[in-house]
Amino acid sequence: GQQVMQIPQYQHVQEGEDFTTYCNSSTTLSNIQWYKQRPGGHPVFLIQLVKSGEVKKQKRLTFQFGEAKKNSSLHITATQTTDVGTYFCAGDTGRRALTFGSGTRLQVQP
Amino acid sequence: SQTIHQWPATLVQPVGSPLSLECTVEGTSNPNLYWYRQAAGRGLQLLFYSVGIGQISSEVPQNLSASRPQDRQFILSSKKLLLSDSGFYLCAWNLRTGVEKLFFGSGTQLSVL
After folding, report:
1. Up-side HSE of residue A53: CA atoms within 13 Å toward CB?
2. Which residues are within 8 A (CB) of A82 and not within 5 positions of it... i.e. 6 or more apart?
3. For labeling, which of A6, A31, B5, B90 is most exposed (least CB within 10 Å)?
């Protein structure tokens, strides 16, 4: 079936270091979304990418959508303790429901 | 503004007991509604989604069922809970057309003992 893979599963960084999570789909995506889930909380929408090769920035966060629309990445520059949480990508494969990646849990050491 | 309410926040149930989780959305009409389950430290598994009253699509065969008796009400049920039904259950909605980002409820932590 259609799958969205996400790596790494877990990353522990020192505050101030950069962080990147990668998302790969087995099928072409019409769009991809990114969510953040704080510990004990629910996922919250961060951004949506639609165009091939699209790059969007939100302060220290940079999101990219691959040229083939099968992969995406989220890069955080100079992590802070407030960045702690699990980051999920979710792809629109043309079905009515988004397919979520398995998530990357980020831990930031102060 | 739109809001989504999900209850209860936590639930401890014995094996074999029934389950009913409720989710309601306010401030919008004709939303798509979803039930996801998240095992501890894992990703989101889509269980059911609905595009209208009485229209339910099931993604994973299991002993859970869903119903949508009203436009903005989505219910997750089970007649007999299994240990493997433990997890964090999330209700979500999005607009039928246009931007399709999901808005999640605060979730229900279900422990089946």
Report:
1. 1
2. none
3. B5
User: Over the stretch A50-82, which tens digit does the pLDDT of each residue have?
Assistant: 999 999 999 999 999 999 999 999 999 999 999
CA pair distance A24, A5, nearest whole angstrom: 5
Q: Is the pLDDT of residue B96 over 70?
A: no
pLDDT tens digits along B23-56: 999 999 899 999 999 987 778 998 999 989 999 9
Distance CA B88, CA B8 (A): 11
- The token pair at B58 is 């099931």
A contacts of B43 (beta carbons < 8 Å): 6, 88, 100-103
Query: Six-digit token pair at A107?
Result: 């831990």
Structure tokens of B12?
């401890």
Measure B43 CA to nearest chain A CA, in Å: 4
Query: Do residues B105 and B90 make contact, with C-beta atoms less than 8 angstroms apart?
Result: yes
Which residue on chain B is closest to A87 by alpha carbon?
A: B43
| Chain B residues with beta carbon closer than 8 angstroms to that of A41 | 106-107
Q: Which residues of A36-70 are buried (b: 16+ CB within 10 A; e: fewer)?
A: bbeeeebbebbebbeeeebebeeeebebbbbeebb
Mean pLDDT of the B15-29 span: 95
Distance CA A110, CA A107 (A): 10
Residues of B in contact with A11 (CB under 8 A): none
